[in-house]
Amino acid sequence: MRVDLSCVLHCEALEIFLISHWSRRYNRGGTCSMGFLPQAITWGLLGGYLGVTWGFLTSFAWFFMGEKYRCRPRCGATMMWRMHRVTELTDGAIALRPVTTAHVDDLTDAIRSSRAELSLWMPWCQSNTGHAEMAEFVRGARRAHQVGSEHHFAIHDATGGDFLGMCGITRVQERVRSAELGYWLRSDATGVGRATKSVRLLASWAFEELSLERIAIIAAVANVASQAVAIRSGATREGVTRNGCVIGDGSLSDAITFSLIRSDLNSGSAQIEPPKQAEPI
To answer: What's the whole-model pTM score?
Structure first.
């Protein structure tokens, strides 16, 4: 029996769209337990193209495949579908934009001007970190974004457009729907709550669009400023992990782990109001 390849491809595209729609509308937790419905509809249409009998059999098979498909996390296809739509997240004060090659010069300048502060905690920020290293970082970040394993955003002033720093979602684990969130600002951009706003904005997007249920923030025990950002973002301090992170000089440091879950934020939307209280960063 000959199957038109274009029909199969159209059905695959329809399945991805329907999974995205079902996941967003009916299953904010991300398990996509209703994911079998888009599959049943899609492959039923394909079977219908082949004939009434095949249409019935394919619909029946997908609908009754059992727990193997009904309980399996299906957020991967949703993530791959949605991530290409992201152009900017903003709360009116700051704007988060996916990092691109256009940010290489801004990154290089920010690291050069803030090296003394960043090098205390960031092992990648060394004396020889320059334009070439930032260009390679951006290329890697774009590749990771395309496969959904990491999502790096440049932090900009929403009004003037100035580059302020970086934040990102890393170590995405689809099976348990968790990830880590990191951030840094250039030294002349600290002190007015921008890091906290960035954390809340990015976390809200990740909960909504990546179907995450837990986001960890890890800070060295001596990095009080980073801990303050986590606390003011609404994260809960979970405890100390011995030798839990690598700091600027390459040595291991005990780390404090904070976590955010959906209920820690006031809204599931990326368009959220920033905290009103004064913030050190």
So the answer is: 0.68
